[in-house]
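Sanity check

After download, print the first record. It should look like this:
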Amino acid sequence: MTTLHDFKLYAIDGTERDLAVLRGKTVLVVNVASRCGFTPQYKGLQQLHQELEPRGFMVLGVPSNEFGAQEPGTNDEIRSFCETNYHVTFPMAAKIVVKGAGQNPLYQWLTSAATPPGDVQWNFEKFLINGRGEVVGRFGSSVSPESQELRSAIQSALG
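Expected structure tokens:
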């Protein structure tokens, strides 16, 4: 069975990262964008990451430009935006394609393994992965990082 740990991604600094190093961690994978109405969710995502990291949780931000061309910047511009405006310390991937032609293999898997399956609908869609690397939750863009729905699912995944 395929899990999150079977994939590799390039980090926003250009280094290749093997996601097998996340084994045992609960991960919230979020496709992000700098010019979206949901961009302020970065603040809540950073708070979640900071608060729950000691318990084995992390956010993984994945920039993409598929929705309204709301992430047009380079990886360096994206990193600078996140650090300057939201003090993001959680890991960020290099910009990838999350939907359509050229879709990254990680997102091919996420969108087929999640319930419900199907394409990512917009920026800031969230996939919750347990420590075994399995998708255990999917949350739309309108589900904020502060929501009880998301927090309860994360607490459950953490055990």
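If your output differs, re-run the checksum step. Summary of this record's structure: The radius of gyration is 14 Å.
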